[in-house]
Design goal:
heterotrimer, A alpha/beta, B alpha/beta, C alpha/beta, A: alpha/beta, 4-stranded parallel beta sheet, 5 helices, 4 strands, B: 8-stranded mixed beta sheet, 11 helices
């Protein structure tokens, strides 16, 4: 599908990745506008249910990014995230949901260029995987009703 | 009611006149038997159907039902009613009986549930008399038999190369008359040829009315015994053909949404959990007792019919192997 | 040990637990109306005369513990149940001192699903490698090995890992790869086939939550499905909602599930739950070298971390010097 523009939700930790994304913007690094950012205090705050809920509500790809191991503002939050999200990612793959849809990254506050690169790569990967049909809620009836009543 | 005798071929031919009806019959997939859509031509001539592992409940009170759509700042849309005409064939007398229990709740003269009523009014239910008992069913012990009409539109008896049809629904009876070998007006099942109706040695378990034993049995140690085994899993209520409790939630999409109805179970902790945090049925003892009383005491008291059909699905499904027959026996013979 | 001897010893140990150790309730089994064993709480030493244990005892008794919170509890524990107890102790749900564990060497438990149409027969008992069913006035003698749960066939810890009393006898030996085989089979499918398989399971699910209720590790007073703010999934049993239920429950059990199989036994719809749970156990074991329920004092796998955990994150592998210069 040439015109497919994926919706990507990115959970970025406040202290590193969110700042890194901000740096990318200030430095005018170009990256696709498909990503919608949600700021969390720490990557350890990310409940894997966030990822499932995002996909269920229509996201085509979900990114979770935090501080590099050893640099967590809260000391160990990202270590917990590393373990949990590792298992979770493999669970999604095992159940047949395209592995391209969930990505985990470490982006520090100074890594604006890397953030832009990450988004460019991830958007391409999700585009290739196509629209999320694996775990998305059935809302065509509500969409129809919404359009009718406009 | 009209009793008709037809050849099998003619009976199926008579059904073909219901061409505008969607036909449902029990169909097996792996180890489950459920009502599935089929065409009249696919109906087996011997009219042998397996007993459904799930009940007819899913066609009248579906696991998910959209009640209406709504939009912010507007009044809600009218209820969405399902008016598909359906011919449901192959259920058993216990399933028809279950529909009578559901009717007693959803069709209460002036307070009808429009969704249920619409499905009920547009469906024809044709049951078949059982040829053998399951190991787990006990309709006969409750005084309900495997050959009763139980409010179905018709029940089909196996008479070898013919079928005997006892039709309670006059429209159906009229349509069948043209194809029948003989007909007669009767008042009940005992006056007609029902073929080989199964029978067995069974202990009748009449359940008394609530006034007789309710105050005594409510505090009995029986309920603690059951509680020690019950996991509160809800499997019994989901599979029970007469359990009708539901939950209502909203599903939104921005400014619009729909209100849906899904199954609920009185075995869940949240069922009677109040906003204050108080729960009048805090443990499984109270909840199991309530479920039993509802079927065997409150429904008979309010509506005059037993809330249990004796189908046995609950005791088959129970992972803790709680046998409701034992409870019925204990309660029925309780003298205080 | 014959079944009769096990019963005698069980009752004797049960009595001891009541009289000498002061337990207030003993969680065990008694015969149900169909001959199969059903869970039962015994409150006095005299009531123990109906206490039984055999290959039809498929409930994980640790799931019944929350009902008797605060009491001193005696519990019958084959291997899997004892590991559930260890995890509950490690997660702060029960206190070891308030527990008296009667350990049982387990020969395995019959899978109701494998019995097929025989599951409504009358269970007469199990002995040696066989069990007896009565069906249509016939007595059938069947080999236990063919009808055991996959969980029991693959069980590497059939003997209890903690106990206060130990009943004499021999546990099942020779764990097969029944559960690993299920996981392997799914892994060998293509991505689309795997999704299709799990969507089929999700379609069967009626969201009755029997699996959750039967599981000793699902003790949350408020389960994530009951959360309305935030709401993770709707109450409707649609395929995507059911997938969220199945996947999330699996994830919440990763590193905590002892593979007792009680969930699959409880499920009225025949959903394949153990493939996901066996996968979770394998993955946690491979990644973090962790098997749940073996040691008191251990932290749960997903509730802890190591500096050397495998790291497949994008942008990882940067050293201290490199970070400074970017």
């Amino acid at each position: 599908m040439e015109n497919f523009e994926p919706k990507i939700i990115a959970f970025l930790c406040n202290w590193c990745s969110y700042a890194g994304a901000d740096l990318a913007g200030v430095s005018r690094f170009q990256y696709p506008a498909n990503v919608r950012v949600i700021r969390v205090p720490c990557s350890g705050r990310v409940n894997p249910l966030f990822v499932l809920k995002a996909l269920y509500e229509g996201a085509d790809g979900v990114l979770v990014s935090g501080c590099h191991p050893g640099d967590c503002h809260y000391q160990s939050g990202n270590y917990y995230a590393r373990r949990r999200l590792e298992v979770f990612k493999k669970l999604l793959e095992f159940s047949g949901i395209s592995p391209a849809r969930f990505k985990m990254a470490w982006i520090s506050a100074s890594e604006g260029a890397q953030f832009a690169q990450l988004i460019r790569e991830f958007t391409e990967e999700v585009k290739k995987a196509g629209p999320n049909q694996e775990i998305i809620r059935e809302k065509s009836d509500l969409e129809e009703f919404l359009n009718e009543s406009r | 009611m009209l009793y008709l005798k037809l050849t099998r071929k003619n009976f199926l031919a008579a059904l073909e006149s219901f061409s505008d009806y969607q036909v449902y019959a029990p169909k097996r997939t792996e180890d489950k038997v459920r009502l599935k859509e089929i065409t009249i031509l696919e109906l087996p001539e011997n009219l042998q159907f397996e007993r459904c592992t799930h009940s007819a409940k899913e066609l009248f009170l579906p696991p998910e039902e959209t009640l209406f759509y709504f939009k912010r700042f507007s009044s809600a849309q009218k209820p969405l009613l399902d008016e598909t005409k359906r011919l449901i064939i192959g259920l058993r007398p216990c399933d028809a009986r279950a529909l009578q229990v559901l009717d007693s709740n959803f069709l209460q003269g002036g307070f009808d549930d429009p969704y249920y009523r619409s499905r009920r009014e547009n469906s024809l239910v044709l049951t078949i008399a059982c040829r053998e008992f399951e190991k787990t069913c006990f309709c006969d012990a409750l005084g309900l038999g495997p050959d009763l009409l139980n409010g179905a539109d018709a029940i089909i008896y196996d008479l070898g190369d013919q079928v005997g049809v006892l039709a309670g629904n006059t429209v159906l009876a009229q349509r069948l008359q043209a194809f029948a070998l003989e007909t007669k007006e009767v008042e009940n099942e005992t006056q007609v040829d029902r073929g080989a109706v199964p029978s067995r040695e069974v202990e009748l378990l009449p359940v008394k009315s609530p006034e007789e034993y309710f105050p005594l049995i409510f505090q009995d140690k029986l309920w603690e015994e059951i509680e020690s085994a019950c996991l509160g899993c809800g499997a019994c209520s989901y599979l029970c053909p007469t359990c009708y409790c539901f939950d209502i939630t909203d599903v939104n999409l921005g400014p619009v949404g729909k209100r849906i109805r899904t199954y609920d179970s009185c075995m869940f902790n949240m069922y009677t959990l109040e906003a204050s945090g108080h729960n009048p049925r805090p443990t499984l003892k109270e909840r199991w007792r309530q479920r039993f009383m509802h079927k065997f005491s409150y429904i008979p008291y309010l509506h005059g019919l037993l809330g249990c059909t004796g189908c046995g699905r609950c005791l088959e499904a129970c992972p803790s192997r709680i046998d409701i027959r034992e409870v019925v026996k204990y309660v029925a013979t309780f003298t205080g | 040990m014959s079944l009769g001897e096990i019963t005698e010893e069980l009752i004797a140990k049960g009595r001891e637990a009541f009289l000498n150790e002061g337990i207030e309730v003993l969680l065990g089994f008694e015969k149900s109306s169909s001959g199969f064993l059903k869970p039962k709480a015994f409150f006095s030493p005299d009531s123990l005369k109906t206490l039984r244990w055999d290959a039809s005892a498929s409930t994980n008794l640790a799931a019944l513990l929350p009902k008797y919170r605060g009491k001193k509890i005696g519990i019958l524990a084959p291997g899997c149940v004892s590991r559930s107890l260890v995890i509950l102790i490690n997660e702060g749900q029960i206190v070891r001192e308030k527990l008296k564990v009667i350990g049982i060497p387990c020969p395995g438990v019959i899978d109701r699903r494998k019995l097929g149409p025989l599951k409504n027969s009358y269970f007469l008992g199990s002995k040696g490698g066989k069990f007896l069913l009565e069906s249509d006035n016939q007595i059938l003698e069947l080999p236990l090995e063919e009808y055991l749960c996959d969980c029991c066939l693959s069980c590497r810890y059939p003997s209890p890992v903690i106990y206060d009393y130990m009943i004499q006898g021999k546990s099942r030996e020779g764990a097969t790869d029944a559960l690993e085989g299920r996981v392997k089979k799914i892994n060998s499918l293509s991505e689309i086939e795997r999704l299709s398989y799990f969507q089929d399971q999700a379609e069967k699910c009626i969201r009755c939550y029997a699996c959750r209720q039967a599981c000793p590790m699902c003790y949350c007073e408020s389960c994530f499905v009951e959360s309305s703010e935030p709401r993770w999934l709707t109450a409707a049993p649609t395929i995507p909602d059911n997938l969220i239920w199945l996947l999330t429950r699996t994830y919440h059990l990763a590193g905590r599930c002892v593979e007792c199989g009680a969930c699959e036994q409880a499920c009225p719809e025949g959903v394949d739950l153990m493939s996901l749970l066996a996968w979770a156990k394998q993955t946690v074991s491979q990644l973090f070298n962790y098997t749940p329920g073996l040691e008191i004092g251990e932290r749960p796998a997903l509730g802890s971390f190591s500096y050397d955990d495998p790291d497949f994150f994008w942008g990882g592998g940067l050293t201290e010097e490199k970070k400074c210069c970017t």
